[in-house]
Amino acid sequence: MITLDSVTKVYADRGKHVTAVDGVSLTVDSGEIFGILGRSGAGKTTLLRCLNLLERPTSGTITVDGVELVSMSRRDLRTARQRIGTVFQHFNLMSSRTAAENIEFPLEVTGVGRAERRQRVTELLELVGLSDRGGNYPSELSGGQKQRVGIARALAGRPSVLLSDEATSALDPATTEQILDLFKQINEATGVTVVLITHEAEVVRRICDSAALMESGRFVEQGPLLQLVGDPDSRLAEILLPTGDHDLSIPGRHLTLAFADERAIEPSLSRLSRDLGVEVSILGGTLERVAGHQVGRLRVVYQPGQASDDAVIGYLRERGVTVTAA
pLDDT band at residue 243, thresholds of 50, 70 and 90? Predict the structure, then answer.
């Protein structure tokens, strides 16, 4: 488990103080994939660097697997960091070493014996689908293959936590999907807790269990994805499952609907029209797979007088649809 309590990071810049992370509190459950979504400059990377204490917070506490990191001595912190692997946006591979040697390097640094190192590298190359590429240098690998090496290297020390800093932003869409699927596969196979920093909604939508939206150094919203997408007022849900512009000039009663799993395929609106005689128009919406579940969000409008608002909203809510009136 990862717990952040009121973490703040302030930099001094040309005589001014810049707050990059502003009082962030967070709990990530063991074995969870947690996404932190935000635009460039939101403070995401600084927060990630605080998580592994590459940046020391100005204030607040960071606890990983029951161990509080901020108060640790440098020597103890070096040991604790071995339980935290990091995957970087631009791979950060050593060009003079082969893929296998790049993966082996952190094990060399920590004094692991040669035979054990080689066995672990073989395991990791197979795990990331590069069993036939161990002897290749980074210049001989594609972007996706380089990132697979970076992921394998981050896993070399058997960490309990894997941090990813925009690991897919330099990749094409098809390769991005493959790398995200690999993160999911590794999470399921090893139980490692994954924290993904990203500006791409698709990354969160595809594999995350929970997520936070970060703006100006703060979390403006966070929670389990299924809970968020079921909230018609959620900003993060609107990013993940956009319903389009809310044009309230269209006459009628406007509703935002959210639904998941079997509710996503039930003909609730057609049944509403049949049972209550209400004609409903769909103004916008999205149906996607999120956190392993089929979920959807719709904006609809119907004309008053055909049935009472209480009857319409009650009918939908009885069928498991979350409803918010505009």
Answer: confident
Identical topology for domains 2-223 and 235-325: no
Give the pLDDT score at 265: 60
Rounded Cα distance between 24 and 44, Å, is 11
What CATH architecture is 235-325? 2-Layer Sandwich (3.30)
pTM attached to this predicted model: 0.88
Mean pLDDT across the stretch 217-234?
A: 89
CA pair distance 138, 318, nearest whole angstrom: 57
Tokens (6 digits) for 310 = 């209480």
Who contacts 85 (Cβ-Cβ below 8 Å, separation ≥6)? Answer: 153, 154, 155, 156, 157, 159, 161, 162, 163, 192
Kindly list the domain boundaries of the chain, sorted by start residue: 2-223, 235-325
Q: Which two tokens stand for residue 170?
A: 């330099």
**Contacts (Cβ under 8 Å, ≥6 apart) of 21:** 7, 8, 9, 43, 46, 47, 50, 57, 217
By the 10 Å C-beta count (0-12 exposed, 13-18 middle, 19+ buried), 148 is classed as buried
Residue range 144-154: mean pLDDT, rounded: 96
Q: Is the C-alpha dihedral spanning 217, 48, 188, 169 positive or negative?
A: positive
* Amino acid symbol at 149: V
DSSP states of 143-171: HHHHHHHHHHHHHTT--SEEEEESTTTTS
Question: Which of the 8 DSSP states describes residue 250?
Answer: S
Strands 280-290 and 210-215: unpaired
Tokens read off for 69: 């990191």
pLDDT at 186 over 80: yes
Query: Which CATH number does 2-223 carry?
Result: 3.40.50.300
- Output the six-digit token pair for 19: 């707050």
Helix axes 114-127, 143-155, angle to 10 degrees: 130
